[in-house]
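cache lookup: miss for this entity combination. No prior model stored, computing from scratch. Input as submitted by user K.M.:
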Amino acid sequence: MKRIGLAAQVDARTGQSPQRYSPIAWERILSGIDRNGRPQVELMKVLSAALERGELAGGVRLPSGRELARILGVSRNTVIAAISDLVDHGYLVSRERSGVYIADPLPPMATPSAPRQPMDRIDWGARFSVGGIAEAAASTSIPPPAHSFEYGQFDFSLFPIAHWRECERAALGKLEIACWARDMGDEDDVELLEELRKHILPYYGIWSRPDEILITLGGQQGRYLVAQLLSGRGTRAGIEHPGLPDMAKILGVTSAEIRHLPVDQDGLILGDALDSCDTVYVTPDHQNPTTVTMSLTRRQDLLKRAASRDFVVVEDTFETEFVFHEPSLPSLRSMDGDNRVVHVGSLSKLMAPGLRLGYVVASPTVIRELRALRRLMHRHPPGNNQRALAIFIRHGHYRTHMRRAAVELGRRSAALAAALDRWLPDVRWRHRPGTSSFWLELPLELDAGRLSMAAERRGVRVTPGRRFFSGLEPAGNFIRLAVSTLGEYQIEAGIRLLELLIFNLKKGDLGHC
Amino acid sequence: MKRIGLAAQVDARTGQSPQRYSPIAWERILSGIDRNGRPQVELMKVLSAALERGELAGGVRLPSGRELARILGVSRNTVIAAISDLVDHGYLVSRERSGVYIADPLPPMATPSAPRQPMDRIDWGARFSVGGIAEAAASTSIPPPAHSFEYGQFDFSLFPIAHWRECERAALGKLEIACWARDMGDEDDVELLEELRKHILPYYGIWSRPDEILITLGGQQGRYLVAQLLSGRGTRAGIEHPGLPDMAKILGVTSAEIRHLPVDQDGLILGDALDSCDTVYVTPDHQNPTTVTMSLTRRQDLLKRAASRDFVVVEDTFETEFVFHEPSLPSLRSMDGDNRVVHVGSLSKLMAPGLRLGYVVASPTVIRELRALRRLMHRHPPGNNQRALAIFIRHGHYRTHMRRAAVELGRRSAALAAALDRWLPDVRWRHRPGTSSFWLELPLELDAGRLSMAAERRGVRVTPGRRFFSGLEPAGNFIRLAVSTLGEYQIEAGIRLLELLIFNLKKGDLGHC
């Protein structure tokens, strides 16, 4: 009794399936197998695919081990190990003295409604409580051109694959799983909290107890949670101008009234506008986008002012993961005698921003409330990543990676500085050693928006400065360049292209006058 | 020149370190090594620890390969491979014709401020825009007693360690890393979106395009995001009564006005209170906590009512990951002709809630806005977990795991049903096959709160029903039991303990009368 045509004879939906398939049928089913992969995995993949296509059904008997070994071209022992694994995991069922069978299939799925053109019978716009963000928050998904001076994107050639893999694997030990795989409620991984407070925070001069720390999904979530807790409707929030565009958008969602506070070469200017704020958001170590570091005197004065006018200071350690390799000024949090500084940082930006890990350090009263808010939002950052990062820090990999990344960024920054001095001598720029970004002031007659559009067409991405000014008195002649993605030897070529564009743009502008 | 005392002779801070250590010194430094681990990892660990303790410093020369092999008791080739790895990663520096050295240390860290008793000089309570949640949201962290009938906690004996490890490893391929390690902005992993829409959503009868799906950090984030977008200040939200306590808390944070809508044996009752709602949150497949499944007629009527009164329906597929193994009623989203149903689900509850993965399916207009909101909150769920789950589904492991978990839950549920019938025959209970929880109605004179406190002291955890009633007409005689954690053979013992307690409590109550 030979069976060849499969699909015609097997109907998974009615369960009318033959109990045995012929060798030729099996050869066809198994023909898609990848002989270089692990036999268990590969066997399971082709069986699943055949079930999915309706070519196989539950109750069908598998060929003998010998027969399978022949078809697959592997040893019989390999086949037996693979089958035993698949039986353990429920794909196959072993019946004594009878053989191995495909396990009973899942019931037929509910008939899916046909793919349809969505047809909204509802005026969504009128129903959005926090509408219009989709326009405001531009996606970062446009693929970068050949020379991208875009900030913050990850250079995956630097990702410590082997070490991270080792730590992920360690986090999958049985005892580790028992710690992180459960719903952790409002908790964080205790081991990550320990590593953080013992081996990371001291670099910022911060010595914290575990109840003063919250793990977040990157620096972004730190900013968002703090804004939601402290800068709601009816409060005033001060932000730097120019500054991080997302900060203004977040405060738009939380309905705070925004005060734009100007910045000079010592950091945030302590003007009168400060005094009416309930909360002030600053990036003292590395002002975004000007790269300015707030001076020690300014830091001390800011904290005095905060105490006398009773406002809260949110210290955002923007890109200071990179500054590990050089002594820094003390963080505001480390100088804070009142417990009124909330310190927000990232742990993954340097390694793989896609991992989304960061932290907030603050008074236990604040952390307790942030923790409760985070629990309602999504409980906690995934436990496996928290535990893997704890192990990564404990094994010393974080420190090493920091050092390597800093050395690499130093090389690239030196190349960019040299290229700017050589090819764009009349452009003024500012850069903090140990970070990835440069803030450029172009000649006044140049429009950074036009330059960036022209550059994008020529394969060079730069960030026009206007977006950091939140629509207020936009200075049109600033751009930001960063060396996060571009290798040392591609930098000069990018700057030469930029120089050519600036030359042409100047000519064109003069032509129009 | 023999050196023995280490700490005394090396001062990492001043850099005054000897360039060579004696064999005895090295033996002491290396004595902590774990000879069963991977030599690279172990060598790196002891070196890091010695650096940390100040026993080693940058610039110290490593012993020769031969010498190290002797001290460590491994082959010279192993030592050379380990050293080469550590050089690659920057722990060690190889100087030509001179030897291998400990890399230059990081600069001394900023002097940490001493651990201090936090001293808040600020009235935080007055500043919280969303205060008082910390009280309301009880932590789930109290360790469970011997017999825990708590809902939803993870039974890690069911976690598919080997398969998940295989998928995490696959997600660490170079090409995979290039996809997920970057800051993904407002995007999700395209592969997870594909697996979800092709292999998971069809089980609910849903056929979606990628722009109708958002990946979330578990079902909890789906609920939160949707509430923040659609149930802000000035809107009315209907929730089930009794129902999920967190839903009311979330709506408290988003400032919606809440309507409590009663439930009967067919699910949500379609009363007049419904009509004044802007958004109605329902759990049709498995009402929480009553375990009721909404009837087909009720589903049809709810959708008709939603269309005629123009409200939005949020369908929360509470615990229906477990129901894969039996045909279900069509989901509201699959019956929705108007695109007015928002469908919220979990992907990790069944496997490891700590992984925090779930999804929302809705009109592209809604998804676009949720995506923008999520971008401001924390960008995206970690990319490595998204990719690992995509591979897990593609390889068929998700389906298998689902089947195994359903079989196991079925066994446990049967044991609980039998134990209840045998030991507590006058208690009425309700359970939906394929799920983990039971809803028990105790004799009227019993107080569930007192019972649960007494039970906790005797090593049995049950959930009193009162918390599902949001303080309105609390029915005092309900409890919920679940079989998420307790194995089949421990269940009856737990119920016998409960029976004894109820017996004593009744006696005590009668005594008081």
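stored under new cache key. Chain B touches chain A through 145 residues (CB under 8 Å).
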